[in-house]
Design a protein that fits this description.
Layout lengths: L1 H11 L4 H67 L2 H28 L3 H29 L3 H89 L13 H29 L9 H8 L7 E8 L2 H8 L1 H19 L7 E5 L4 E7 L6 H15 L4 E3 L2 E3 L3 E7 L7 H17 L4 E3 L2 H23 L2 E10 L5 E12 L3 E3 L1 H11 L2 H18 L8 E5 L2 H5 L3 H12 L6 E6 H5 L2 H13 L3 E7 L6 H6 L4 E4 L11 H16 L3 E5 L4 H9 L4 E3 L10 H9 L4
Parallel strand pairs: 6-7, 9-11, 11-12, 12-13, 13-14, 14-15, 15-16
Antiparallel strand pairs: 1-3, 1-6, 2-3, 4-5, 8-9, 8-16, 9-10
Helix pairs in contact: 2-3, 2-5, 3-4, 4-5, 5-6, 8-9, 9-10, 12-13, 14-16, 16-18
Protein name: EAL domain-containing protein
Keywords: Membrane, Transmembrane, Transmembrane helix
Pfam family, one: EAL
Length: about 700
């Protein structure tokens, strides 16, 4: 019923709210004008009646009162005639005549001004009694003039007194009539005022009711739609975008409703896009890490395992074939993984896409199968679906995955920890070049140990816990020492000696190796400065990391260090790995030329183990090649290795490079290298790395250039 009423109002009222409000205000204004006009008109009417009352009725009352006074005056004149002498009667007669004349004039004036029949009849009786009274006192005058006192007395008693009494009675009746008329007129004025009061009150009540009605209509046609808009806006604020504003005939409200509905749809669309960006991978459209954690944060992890998968050699694909091909590989891999998982029941697995080429698979064991058996079966099944090469724009790419597996147990507090454990296992698989690795407590201990190593390494640089050991380089032609290679050693105050094999790779991964390099350079240059007088021809070679080759300010810092200690740049050597140079040859080669221009010697360390090409080798401003230890072991017994090393030596000499072999431990290895034409050697056969007093003793007793 209420809705039908609102619908009826909507159909009757204009469409625009401005017109509705204008109509409401106009109606209220009309009612107000009506009240004012009615009040003014009634006041004017009352005023006119009051003026008429003052002008006519009161005047008539005064005339009637004057008439009564004149009658009293006539009676007084008659008494004077009785008591006066003849000579004094004349004035009394004149007074009686004047009174009579004035009475006639008053009666005539009252008769002419009166329209009331009762009043006219009363006036007629007054006039009649007045004539009788006049005639009676004329008869009285005649008796008095005849000097007949008895006759005059008789006339007075029989004629004048009754006529006078009748005249007085009729005049009194006329006076009472006038008083009643005046009172009736006053009552009529009072009733008119009461009627005006009631009419004004009625009109005011009507105006108030109209105002209330208009307010209700306004509430129905304006406020209610606005409330609907408010409720819809609140629904949008809570994220309910399906709630639409009902359209009304009110143009402004309808436009606002359309705009709000449009805004709701736009927000819903954008929120869906934002949710897609926030919770889904843009390449594979799989759930990302955030959605995985959001979905399973409160889930019981019992009988669950996390398999973290990384596409092997994806970096090489990106660098060789381009990132577009790499993205295609990720998309196709995603499709194959999803296709493979269709063979498992829903709810037993959840596939997500992490950064780069990483995928995460949360799986749950069902039935009698253990979670370990499920993981092994799943990995085999996934590998089967990934065994076929992926064809991307005329390129065939073999895809294989590296797996890190972590099983949930009582010590796994949440999904984040399970993912972290899988990441530790994945890194372990990569470090050991394995297809898969299972998380173990030993890996966690190693990871925690590495984390503490980084903190301890920072402290070691400050507290001078690192040591620079020197291993001699010996010229094979005369077995004289011409320089040293600086090797970093760490004597931990708690753990004792920490092998460089343990902390140097970790420092390289964390980027802290640059601080170690800088410390070693300072120690080497300081040592060369101390040797200026005693060993002026000896050189020291310092290993440079890949991170240092990315730093364009590195040559400036090395040059400033040499200038600070006044050391000849030719006495400082820098050893670089092939892999470090070839990681970004376009920026590394110019940096090496800058270093070489300062006079510093450059050496390629571990030559033969990297993947440099001869074209790049010709561009490198190096002065020395260091043959890796793997080519030297038992070289005296391996003819094929001898031919390979001889080729490397001849190639180095062809490029005007000094060739040195590292890792020489026997005399047979040394003699073989001499026969092959190698220039110098470094290894335990010449000397182990030396430090402190042992270094000083060796310098004193050994052969030097």
């Amino acid at each position: 019923m209420n809705d039908a009423f609102h619908i009826a109002i909507e159909r009757v009222l204009p469409r625009r709210i401005s017109y509705r409000l204008a109509l409401s205000y106009l109606l209220i204004l009309c009612l107000f004008i009506l009240v004012v006009v009615k009040t003014v008109a009634q006041v004017q009417h009352v005023t006119q009646r009051s003026q008429q009352f003052a002008r006519e009725d009161l005047q008539k009352l005064l005339q009637v009162q004057n008439l009564a006074l004149d009658i009293e005056g006539s009676t007084s004149a008659l008494v004077l005639i009785f008591s006066s002498t003849q000579d004094k009667r004349k004035p009394a007669y004149d007074a009686v005549d004047a009174k009579k004349k004035h009475i006639d004039e008053l009666i005539l004036a009252l008769t002419n001004s009166s329209k009331d029949e009762i009043e006219l009849a009363c006036l007629e009786r007054v006039a009649s009694t007045h004539q009788e009274f006049r005639q009676s006192y004329l008869n009285l005058f005649d008796e008095i003039e005849l000097d007949n006192p008895d006759g005059a007395k008789k006339v007075f008693e029989e004629q004048v007194a009754p006529a006078r009494q009748s005249f007085l009675t009729e005049s009194a009746a006329l006076l009472d009539l006038e008083k009643r008329n005046i009172k009736q007129r006053q009552e009529e004025e009072k009733r008119d005022l009461e009627q005006l009061k009631l009419e004004v009150i009625a009109i005011s009540v009507i105006a108030v009711l109209c105002g209330l009605g208009l307010a209700f209509i306004t509430q129905s046609s304006v406020v209610r739609p606005l409330n609907d808009l408010e409720q819809s806006a609140l629904q949008i604020a809570t994220g309910n975008y399906d709630s639409k504003v009902p359209l009304t005939r009110a143009t402004e409200i309808a436009q606002a409703g359309i705009a709000l509905n449009t805004m709701s749809d736009a927000i819903a669309t954008r929120e869906a896009e934002i949710e897609q960006l926030a919770y889904y991978d843009q390449l594979s459209h799989l759930p990302n890490r955030t959605l995985l954690l959001k979905t399973f944060t409160q889930t019981n992890l019992s009988n669950k395992a996390m398999i973290l998968m990384d596409v092997a050699r994806l970096k090489i694909v990106n660098e060789t074939l381009g990132f577009g091909i790499g993205d295609n590989v990720i998309v196709e891999t995603s499709k194959r993984l999803q296709h493979a998982l269709r063979d498992y029941p829903d709810g037993s697995h959840y596939l997500a896409k992490f950064a780069g080429g990483q995928f995460a698979l949360l799986c749950s064991a069902t039935g009698t199968q253990t979670v370990t058996e499920l993981v092994i079966q799943m990995i085999s099944h996934l590998n089967h679906h990934l065994s076929t090469p992926i064809v991307c724009i005329n390129h065939s790419v073999d895809v294989s995955m590296v797996y890190g597996i972590a099983l949930a147990n009582t010590e796994t507090p949440n999904l984040n920890s399970l993912i972290r454990n899988a990441e530790v296992a994945l890194y372990a698989a990569k470090a050991n070049t394995q297809i898969s690795a299972w998380y173990s407590d030993a890996q966690e201990a190693s990871r925690l140990s590495h984390l503490s190593l980084l903190s301890d390494l920072r402290s070691a640089l400050v507290k001078h816990e690192l040591q620079m050991w020197l291993q001699p380089k010996v010229r094979l032609s005369d077995m004289h020492c011409y320089g040293f290679e600086a090797l970093v050693r760490w004597q931990h105050p708690v753990r004792g000696f920490i092998s460089p094999i343990e902390f140097v790779p970790f420092a390289e991964r964390t980027g802290y190796i640059s601080h170690v390099t800088e410390w070693m350079l300072k120690q080497a240059v300081q040592t060369l400065a101390n040797w200026q007088e005693t060993y002026p021809t000896l050189s020291i070679a310092v290993n440079v990391s890949t991170n240092d080759l990315r730093d364009q300010h590195f040559p400036d810092r090395v040059s400033q260090l040499l200038q600070q200690h006044k050391v000849n740049p030719e006495r400082l050597k820098l050893e670089l790995t092939e892999s470090g140079i070839m990681e970004d040859p376009s920026s590394a080669i110019p940096l090496l030329h800058t270093l070489r221009d300062t006079g510093i010697g450059l050496s390629i360390d571990d030559f033969g183990t990297g993947h440099s090409s001869l074209a790049y080798l010709q561009q490198l401003p190096v002065t020395e090649l260091k043959i890796d230890r793997s080519f030297v072991i038992n070289i005296d017994q391996l003819s094929s290795t001898q031919r390979l090393v001889k080729t490397i030596i001849e190639m180095g000499h062809g490029l005007n490079l000094h060739v040195i072999a590292e890792g020489i431990e026997t005399q047979a290895e040394r003699d073989t290298l001499i026969e092959l034409g190698c220039d110098a050697m470094q290894g335990y056969f010449a000397s182990k790395p030396l430090y402190g007093a042992a270094l000083e003793n060796w310098l004193v007793t050994s052969k030097r250039v």
